[in-house]
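Lecture 7, part 2: worked example. A protein chain together with nicotinamide-adenine-dinucleotide.
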Amino acid sequence: MLNLTGKKALITGIANNRSIAWGIAQQLHQAGAELGVTYLPDEKGRFEKKVGSLVEPLNPSLFEPCNVQDDAQVDAVFDAIASKWGKFDILIHCLAFANKDDLTGEFSATSREGFKTALDISSYSLTRLAKSAKPLMNEGGAIVTLTYLGGVKVIPNYNVMGVAKSALEMSVRYLAAELGPQGVRVNAISAGPIRTLASSAVGGILDMIRHVEETAPLRRTVTQEEVGNAATFLCSPLASGITGQVLYVDAGYEIMGM
Ligand code: NAD
Ligand code: 0WE
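Predicted complex, written out as C-alpha cells:
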C-alpha cells in the first residue's frame, strides 16, 4: 500500500460516483492524502449538493467551485489553498468538454467556437491550473491529467476532442520540462474507455467498450479504481523518476495493430 500521509491533493473533475476523478479521489484518500475538491458550479447548485455529499466521507479540507473557463474562479481556488494549506503536493486534472455536435459527424464541420471551447476546457485548463499551482507546490509534488488514445490515433467521432487531447499531451511535456527543476513532476494517464457521465453521452460508446473487450490483451476494459491506483502511483515517491510521460491504463489495447 502506498503511503501519501501528510500530502495535500487538489482534485478536479468529480461529477458523480462514476467519474474517473472519484476513483482517483478514493485511492488518494486510502493512501492517506488530505483532499481538496473542486466542482463545476451550475445555476441550481445541483453539482455542489451532489458532489458535496459524495465526497463528504473523504473529509475534504477544501470544497470549492471551479469552472476552468473563469480565471476568477481558478484564482479563488488557489487563494483558498494558499490560506488553508499554504503549500500543497498533488494536482489532479480530470476534466474535458466539447459541444455534443462536435463529437459526431465530419471533423471538418467543427466550428471556430466549438474548437475554442474544446481546447479551452480540455487542454488550456491544465496550463492555467499549473500556472497558479506552480508557486504553491512542494518539491516532490506531482500533477496528473487524463487523456485518451483519440489524441494520438483517429477514433471515429472523437473529432475535436482528439485535437484537444493531443494539445493536452504536449502541454504535459512542456509543463514537465518547466516544473522539473523545482522537483514537480507532470504526467498523463491515457485511460481506456470507461462508462462515465461524459462517455455515456456519446453515441456508440457501448459498441466501443465491446470492441475493447474483444481486442485488448486483457480482454476487458479498465475500472475507475485501476486508473485511481495508477494516478496514486504517479503521485507517489515510487514514480520519482517519471515525468513528462503518458501512461496507458487501457488493458493493453494501445499496443494492438489488428
Ligand atoms: P465525467 O463526466 O465524470 O468528468 C468530466 C468532468 O469535467 C465533470 O466533473 C465536469 O464537471 C468537468 N467539467 C466539464 N467542463 C468543465 C469546466 N468548464 N470547468 C470545470 N470542470 C468541467 O467523465 P470522465 O469520463 O470521468 O472524464 C474525466 C476525464 O477522463 C476527462 O479528461 C476525459 O477526457 C478523460 N477520459 C475519459 C475516458 C472515458 O472513457 N470515460 C477515457 C479516457 C480519458
Ligand atoms: O474524453 C472523453 C469524453 C469527452 C467528452 C464527452 C462529452 C459528452 C457530452 C467531452 N465533451 C462532451 N460533451 C458532451 O456534451 N472520453 C475519452 C470518452 C469518449 O468520448 C468519445 C469516445 C470516448 C471513448 C467520443 C467519441 C468517440 C469515443
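Strands lie at 8-11, 34-39, 62-65, 88-93, 137-147, 185-191, 246-249. The chain has one domain: 8-249. Keep this in mind for problem set question 3.
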